[in-house]
Amino acid sequence: MSSPKPATAGPRAALEPQRRPGKLRVAALLRAGAEVIAERGYEAATMAEIAARADAPIGSLYRFFPNKESLADAIIDRYSELINTAFERINTLPASTTTQAFADALLASLAELRGETPAVGTLLETRPDASARRSEFHDAFLKNIIRVLKRRDPRLENVEDIAVVLLQNLKMMKSLHLEHDAGAITELRNMTRLYLESKLGK
User: Fold this and answer.
1) 12 pLDDT exceeds 70?
2) Any idea which fold 20-200 has?
3) What is the pLDDT of residues 97-152, one digit of tens each?
4) For 40, how many CA atoms within 13 A lie in the half-sphere containing its CB?
């Protein structure tokens, strides 16, 4: 009787660093991966180029990310974490913050993600679950906006509709170039301020 064959191990998952140096290295690798993928596309991007961009040994990249797919998953997950962190900062604004400052903080929340967005967009286009992941991001954005609005004014009516309008403004702000579209950014900021003042007061 032949012995049973040992179970075949699946692909190794990305390694989660526990110490600060490892976390800093992973953050640098993720930034480099996002830059290279944004510039060259997912298929054309290579692990060697990503490691070189991060000024890291190729072995260090493979230590944390055994393949490009695990790196891509980590870039998408990191984007979600950055979104949540941005809205957590908004939630720490004191109650005395003016509506104008609140509106500016909302618009800045996504503008800060400009560098990450192109890579995530590219990755979502190449994934079989792209539609589901886009829906997840959309829902997460809306929930975060609703949460900060309710904290600002728990009695606010039609908060879901207001959140949808603000989400469109946030997407528009994220798509504008800081230098080339400076005038449009100013107009969008003023429009968002006035809109929120009409809903929340000053």
Assistant:
1) no
2) Tetracycline Repressor; domain 2 (1.10.357)
3) 999 999 999 888 877 777 777 888 888 887 777 778 788 888 888 999 999 999 99
4) 15
d(CA 140, CA 90): 15
The reported pLDDT for the residue numbered 102 is 94
First to last CA, the chain: 82
Angstrom distance (rounded) from CA 201 to CA 165 = 17
HSE, side-chain direction, 13 A CA sphere, residue 123: 26
Token pair listed for 198: 């009409």
Burial state string for 71-83 with b = 16 or more CB within 10 A and e = fewer than 16: bbbbbbebbeebb
The 10s digit of each residue's pLDDT in 26-63 is 999 999 999 999 999 999 999 999 999 999 999 999 99
Q: What pLDDT sits at residue 110?
A: 73
* Backbone torsion region of residue 6, taken as left when φ is above 0, otherwise alpha when ψ lies between -120 and 50, otherwise beta: beta
Domain ranges of the chain: 20-200
Show Cβ contacts of residue 115 under 8 Å, excluding neighbours closer than 6 positions: 31, 34, 35
Q: What's the confidence (pLDDT) of residue 52?
A: 96
Do 36 and 53 meet the contact criterion of CB atoms below 8 Å apart? yes
Q: 14 in helix, strand or coil?
A: coil
Whole-number Å distance between alpha carbons of 56 and 30: 12
